[in-house]
């Protein structure tokens, strides 16, 4: 039995694959024609069937001729082939809506004709096909077609007057079921369920794609087995497969076929060739997400099928550390649930917000180029700190001592003290029952006791008596009265830690017992969010293990590094005053976004997330800010344009001088000369 296909699209390919994989027809007995050379080359390689551009050649090599063309070109095909379709051949049309009478009228009068209507699941060998037979068909023609098409699903006879009913049921039915699955999936996602059944494909497996895939899998949003990625080089694919455990291929089309959501993660200059390669595969059942900068929805839509569901998404570099700030806009054929679905996915790697497309350029200027601006700020502030004498990198000493039974007391229970306590207890470093705090007002103590579960007292001395480590968390102007009250209790068995700005070790030591163990520690405001940058110096009577002990404690609320006291003013200028400089930057970037048309809440979220994500990128990569900045700055692009403006406005110099000025002021307040 020889079978020919006029038209070698996806439907024909699926049917031919079903026939050969089930051993019903040998591949050498199948012929197919198509206009596109690329299509013929591919199916010849993949299916090993015979191919040609000539429809008549296919007819001549066929006993059963399957007309798998669109209805609008059917008459042209029939006119070309009518003289070849004698009664020795069985003609099967799978073109929707083309009746037996219409087919018969354009072929030889005694042509054997069958009209067959498969449905989309035939692409997965699970079709539901129905057929009707023409008046010249032989009795055995119907059973023969049934036997063939049952290799790719079910196949049943119907009188032609019921074909429209079947079209409404099994023909359109898959779309109804897809809609139901999609709606139920989106509802589940909004309630917090993971997207385990969703298949995601990446065309392009660079750093951005790898970071996104890693975020999806690490957060349990999509299983690694449900992710595919393509790349040009085998080296990249091997790395991605090994590190992420996802499926890989050098064939973009294979990735498309295994995807429900297709992420186009390629450079803008190669986007058109990628779209041309896969446009015939991107039907309305797939959601296409482009992360290529500057490629508009209209451009994407114009190169895909008219009803393709398209979303344009712009992530930023901090997505590499799961702290991206992404924005997206939706194409005209996208479903209402497509946007929320993409939001749910990309919130696993940072933030994700909807924007109308006319504001995408504004977001590019803010969150897209913003990481480079923040890296510039970090670099300038780092260099200012180094110029003031701070070491470029700090090495954490090892800590061997267990802290679980250490008793910690806080004299002063304000926001700073509460934040530190919360960090200690949340990380399980110190038990709540081993912490005491004092304050002047009962309202503060009741709040702290209720929220943190620690011991409270209005007596500073009671707190000192219950402490191994005593944290003096009071304002500098009341420090002397607190020291006078407690000095007789601060024997060498206790470690005293002052977090009061500008109060020196000598000052503390002079008001306590001579052999008191004292540490001066300077946290900064972000300690309130467990993200502080603390530095400390140790008094002359401190034990060798006191410094590492304090580091271990305060690393539960951020970073903590040792400094000699003569550099504390430099650290004050950098990390102490630094949060205000960064807040100024966030405010300026937010206002610029608002000026460009972004809603203020979104502009602030993008600016804030950009700063947060960029900072994480520096901390987690261990790379110099200048190196990271250069890596994300394209020649002639938006980021270098913005950086040039910062340079023209003296951005680096301004930050450098701000750190210097703050350090000098800290020295003045402490009545000592700053390091230069």
TrEMBL record:
Signal peptide, first to last residue: none
Classification via Pfam families: F420_oxidored (PF03807), P5CR_dimer (PF14748)
GO cellular component, one term: cytoplasm
Recorded catalytic activity of this chain's protein: L-proline + NAD(+) = (S)-1-pyrroline-5-carboxylate + NADH + 2 H(+); L-proline + NADP(+) = (S)-1-pyrroline-5-carboxylate + NADPH + 2 H(+)
Record bears the keyword NADP: yes
Occurrences of domain Pyrroline-5-carboxylate reductase catalytic N-terminal (ranges): 2-97, 199-294, 407-502
Swiss-Prot/TrEMBL keywords: Amino-acid biosynthesis, Cytoplasm, NADP, Oxidoreductase, Proline biosynthesis
GO BP of this protein: L-proline biosynthetic process
SUPFAM superfamilies cross-referenced by the UniProt entry: 6-phosphogluconate dehydrogenase C-terminal domain-like, NAD(P)-binding Rossmann-fold domains
Coiled-coil ranges per UniProt: none
Domain Pyrroline-5-carboxylate reductase dimerisation: 160-196, 357-395, 565-669
EC number annotated for this UniProt entry: 1.5.1.2
Primary location recorded for the protein, binned into one broad class: cytoplasm
InterPro entries (alphabetical): 6-PGluconate_DH-like_C_sf, NAD(P)-bd_dom_sf, P5C_Rdtase_cat_N, P5CR-like_CS, P5CR_dimer, Pyrroline-COOH_reductase
Keyword rRNA processing tagged: no
EC top class, as a word: oxidoreductase
Biological or metabolic pathway of the protein: Amino-acid biosynthesis; L-proline biosynthesis; L-proline from L-glutamate 5-semialdehyde: step 1/1
Protein localization: Cytoplasm
GO molecular function, one term: pyrroline-5-carboxylate reductase activity
Subunit structure: Homodecamer; composed of 5 homodimers.
HAMAP family documented for this protein: P5C_reductase
Matches recorded under NCBIfam families: proC
Function, in words: Oxidoreductase that catalyzes the last step in proline biosynthesis, which corresponds to the reduction of pyrroline-5-carboxylate (P5C) to L-proline using NAD(P)H. Proline is synthesized from either glutamate or ornithine; both are converted to P5C, and then to proline via pyrroline-5-carboxylate reductases (PYCRs). PYCR3 is exclusively linked to the biosynthesis of proline from ornithine.
Similarity comment: family membership: Belongs to the pyrroline-5-carboxylate reductase family.
Protein name: Pyrroline-5-carboxylate reductase
Organism whose genome encodes this protein: Macrostomum lignano
